[in-house]
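Section 3.1: Structural characterization of target chains.
Under the original work plan, the team committed to producing a structural model for every single-chain target entering the pipeline before any wet-lab resources were allocated. The record below documents one such target. The sequence was received from the expression subgroup and is listed exactly as submitted; it comprises 185 residues.
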Amino acid sequence: KIGVLVPQSKSYPGIGRDFINGLKLHAPEDVSILVEGIGMGENVGVTCDKIDKLVLQEDVDAIVALIGDNGLSTAYEKVNELKVPTIFARLGAYPDLNIEGNEYAFTLSYGLCDSLRYLGEWLPQNGFKKIGVSGSFNDAGYGFLEVFEGALYGSGGEFSGHYTPPLNPRPDEAQFLKEFYQNVE
C-alpha cells in the first residue's frame, strides 16, 4: 500500500492527476495507491496531518509526496518519527535537506538549485562576470537566487541588475523587461 500526497495548483490544475498517473504507469498490479490532497501545499501542518492519516489509519507501507519546500524539515521529522519510507518529489527550489538521524525521508529533486549553483560558478570562470537576471521571485525565485548569488560571488562574479515584474504583471510587461536588458551592463 502506497500513500500519495498531491497538491492543488491554480497554475497547473492537472499536476496532481498527472503525478498519480505517472506513478500508476509503473506500479505492479498488486500495489494499491491511496491519494490524499494537501491543499495548495503551503501548510506543513496539513501535510503532516495527511501523513498521520495515511500511516496511522490507512496503514500504508510507504509514501510518495509531490511537495513544496515550505516546512520540509518538519515533514522529514514526521516521517522519521513514524518510521515510514517517504519520497518527497520536489522541484528543488531550495537546496536538499540533510537532517541528523534521517533514515526514512528521501528527496527526488529536479535539482534546479544545483543547476543554478553550477551556472553561478561556470559564468565567471568563462569570462561572464556581470550578470543581469529577471524572474518572478514572488513565485519561486528566492531560493534559486540565493544559491545562484552565493556561487556567482564565490567565483568572482557579480550582479549588474535584477528585474522583477510585479505580482500582477502589466499588459506591456515584456517592454519593461526589454528595456531592462537593453540598459543593464
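Strands lie at 2-6, 33-37, 62-66, 86-90, 105-109, 130-134, 158-163.
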